[in-house]
Amino acid sequence: MANFEPKIVGFLCNWCTYAGADLAGTSRMQYPPNIRPIRVMCSGSVDSAYVLRALLEGADGVFIGGCHPGDCHYVSGNYKERRRITVLKSILKTLGLDDNRVWIRWVSASEGKRYADTISEMTSHLKKLGPNPISKYWSL
Amino acid sequence: MTKEVVIEVKNGKVKEAINSFLKGLLEKNLVSALLVSREVPSKDNVVQSLVTNSHGLKEANVIAPVLPVNSARIISEMTRLSPHKSPVGIVLRSCEIRALIELVKLKQASLDNLLIIGVDCLGTYSVSDYQGLCKQGDSPLDELLRKFKEENEDAKLREACRVCEYAIPSNADLVVGLIGVDFEKNILLESRTEKGEGILEKFSFPKFNQSKEREESVSKYIDEKIAKRDALFSQTKKEVGNWENLLSVFSTCISCHNCMRVCPICYCRECFFKSPTFEFDSEKYLGWAKRKGSIKMPKDTILFHLGRMSHMATSCVGCGVCEGACPSNIPLLRIFKTVGHNVQQIFKYVPGRDLEEPLPLTTFKEDELQGVGEE
Ligand code: SF4
Ligand code: SF4
Ligand code: FES
């Protein structure tokens, strides 16, 4: 487990978190390379089915990054996504599945450091959790 | 607005007493048609039937204890493109009305010109159990009414009904009451809206004078159901509880998607899980299989079920028709009802309670769920 490197699938909104990630990169901030970012127009466009698909395909974690509350470029996409992810986490919890592998966080375009810190934090959290147990099963 | 009257029951014939009232609705031109469940010629099942003359009511059995479909889907089919122009009466159970309210919120049905007649629901049998009883020569309805009177719950009732806390319909114009009512002599007819009251004025039924007894029986009955429901919730949590158990529950699923097709809440014309998103090149399958060593085919069974839950759990009314449609006897009701209940509680949302309550996934509050984004 010592050299377990978690794979994180990231859905980053174009207007805030993706720009924040860009800033972290151009400012040469150090953060673990564990996230595979996918640029989406708004966090609100991320249906739970995509999050589930990533998890079921064996991602160790799924990260959804959006604009801070009140700053969504489509007004309320992030608020709605927060509800959607809350529902998803509740479903996972009810079924006894780990909901701590799904994170939703707000990172603005100017928060390169916050982005780097959040990804570091999530990576070390997942290292503690260990690999996604779903990878063991073939009968999905 | 509530007015309570009684319909006299002759020779213990409850079904016929209700039918006489329905006949009155048509004959007095209070409705231009009625959607009722009606016994099929073989007498061992019922289907919904849109009836425009009282002749068609002869085989009506609106309290037949069987639920082959959730009729909310039928009303959606009839009213989605345009609402009714003249009054149409529909006779429904609680889970059907609640699903209908959700479909109206989802803009898939219209209540315009509908007269909703709810019936107290004592529970329903699966279609095959219903047919089995008929073959033995028993009337499933008489059987159920007898057992209900003896306060002897029928273990054969569908699980959805054994744990259903909504025996009494809500959001109806009129309610036909059986619980806490001496239905061998009289049944209750209660108006809940002005429209319903207007209908009662056209009849001269005697007043109901056992409101207090009814209220007490109903609350006792519902409390018992809630206790059973909660027991099922804890049992289900234990039965599932991890990936291994979840996979084993769904291991016999053949991905027919019947559960989704009969679900009154799943209304999408094209289900995402049947969309081209899930059509892949042959090489893709080999790639996945290589990565893991092997994969189950067809793929994505669990994704379908969890994804479907994430779409409809906020509105799940617990009617259990999904389970009835499953060729593999997967215990869908307990899983979906438990999941649905927990999700609904987060938003203090009760599907089908109130037309004015927005669907949880279409609305939000600024100052809620802050922990989810910032823990
Ligand atoms: S499962 Fe989801 S996508 Fe499919 S019909 Fe139901 S709500 Fe629509
Ligand atoms: S009806 Fe049963 S077998 Fe068919 S998809 Fe649903 S759970 Fe699977
Ligand atoms: S109320 Fe009868 S099936 Fe639910």
Structural description of this entry:
The complex is a heterodimer of chains A (140) and B (375). Chain A has 140 residues and is of the alpha/beta class. Chain A has a single domain, classed as Rossmann fold, CATH 3.40.50. Chain A is 39% helix and 16% strand. Chain A contains four helices and four strands, in the order βαβαβαβα. A four-stranded parallel sheet of chain A has the order 2-1-3-4, sandwiched between helices. The longest helix of chain A has 18 residues, at 77-94. Chain A is globular, with a radius of gyration of 15 Å. The two termini of chain A are 25 Å apart. The mean pLDDT of chain A is 96. The longest helix of chain B is centred in the middle third of the chain and has 29 residues, at 211-239. Chain B folds into two domains: 3-231, no CATH class; 235-362, no CATH class. The model of chain B has no long low-confidence stretch (mean pLDDT 96). By secondary structure, chain B is of the alpha/beta class. Chain B has helices spanning 14-27, 72-79, 94-105, 127-135, 140-149, 159-162, 194-201, 211-239, 243-249, 258-262, 282-292, 301-312, 321-325, 332-346, 370-374; strands at residues 3-8, 33-39, 46-51, 88-92, 114-119, 174-177, 186-191. In chain B, helix 2 packs parallel to helix 3 and helix 8 (211-239) crosses helix 14 (332-346). A seven-stranded mixed sheet of chain B has the order 1-7-6-5-4-2-3. Chain B is globular and about 75 Å long. The A-B interface holds A 47-49, 52-53, 56, 58, 69-70, 76, 79-80, 82-91, 93-97, 104-106, 133-135, 137-140 and B 237, 240-247, 251, 272-273, 292-296, 299-303, 306-307, 309-311, 313-314, 335, 338-339, 342-343, 346-347, 360-362, 364-366, 368-369, 372-374. Bound molecules: iron/sulfur cluster (2 copies) and FE2/S2 (inorganic) cluster.
